[in-house]
Specification:
Layout lengths: L1 E3 L18 H5 L3 E5 L8 E5 L6 H11 L6 E5 L5 H13 L3 E4 L1 E7 L2 E7 L3 E3 L2 H5 L5 E2 L5 E4 L2 E3 L13 H20 L4 H7 L9 E2 L2 H6 L9 H6 L52
Parallel strand pairs: 3-4, 4-5, 5-9, 8-10
Antiparallel strand pairs: 1-11, 2-3, 6-7, 10-12
Helix pairs in contact: 3-5
């Protein structure tokens, strides 16, 4: 299964978790909580935890109970499943959601309790690609965005000494291609891929600087060219990866982009721990 290295799934993040939420909550399957912000104002959705195979369905249950169009998704996550992250991100873009990094804070006033956003949070590994799904994206001072390579999840703990087959490399290359396609669909830049894919799993995650966040297009400016581009609908997902071979059709069992391939043919991505089969870790 393809997974994201530090902090994706149930593996301890390489960097210490800096979050107002309990550290163990960030390693559990992602939980969503909905908060309204008054008449005519889009609500807030707080997402804490790692992306697993069950996360897209959990989000759809929330979406069926509330109008999430235009809402802001507030992230505090160690990452998770690569393929499920891409599914989730495309759904958020479809709903026109904004994204940011933070945790919930509650204040009491004359008008009652109000929920706000505190920036003491981290968005790590595949979470950066969830952040990219927002039509508008904001990383407040104090919040952290950290990235690294994807890797085979069952070999993350011993990545330098483990053995790898040609099929293993095929799995990694396939998901790197899917990740690249998604990045450009969402209006991200090659800088994000270049930085993330240059950090091996045995090194600490790379924390993106403010300049790198801008270069990667993980932040947008209202009214700016980047924000305008990202309000457009995602480009259709192509049926197959482009490969050399004189126009020959892919072999039977080849996965289509955006789908999970047959279980016997490939592994799926999760974020930090392999669930059954090897997974590329991000």
């Amino acid at each position: 299964m393809l997974i994201a290295v530090p902090g994706v799934g149930h593996v301890d993040p390489v960097m210490p978790a800096a979050s107002a939420a309990p550290a163990d909550a960030r390693k559990q399957p992602m939980q969503f909580s909905w908060h309204t912000r008054g008449e005519g104002t889009p609500g807030l959705v707080f997402a804490v935890g790692s992306v697993t195979g069950d996360t897209p369905a959990a989000f759809e249950r929330l979406a069926s109970a509330h109008d999430l169009r235009g809402a802001t998704m507030v992230l505090n996550s160690v990452g998770g499943s690569v393929l499920d992250t891409l599914t989730l991100g495309r759904r958020w873009r479809e709903l026109g959601m904004a994204t940011t990094v933070g945790t919930a804070t509650r204040t009491d006033g004359r008008g009652g309790a109000a929920v706000g956003i505190r920036p003491d949070a981290a968005c790590e590994s595949m979470c950066a690609f969830l952040l990219l799904a927002g039509t508008n994206r904001y990383v407040p001072p104090g919040a952290r965005v950290r990235v690294h390579q994807i890797w085979l999840g069952d070999r993350v703990g011993d990545a330098r000494e483990a053995n790898y087959s040609a099929q293993d490399m095929t799995i990694v290359q396939r998901d790197v291609g899917r990740l690249a396609q998604y990045t450009f669909e969402m209006g991200g830049s090659g800088a994000l891929l270049s930085i993330a894919l240059s950090v091996p799993p045995w090194e600490p995650l790379h924390e993106l600087s403010p300049d790198e966040l801008v270069a990667a297009r993980l932040v947008t400016r209202d009214g700016g060219a980047i924000a305008a581009t990202n309000r457009a609908a995602p480009k259709p997902v192509q049926d197959r990866l482009a490969v050399s071979g004189g126009g020959r059709a892919p072999a039977a069992g080849t996965a289509r982009l955006g789908e999970a391939a047959p279980a016997a043919a490939e592994a799926t991505a999760t974020g930090g721990v392999a669930h059954g089969q090897p997974a590329a870790a991000q």
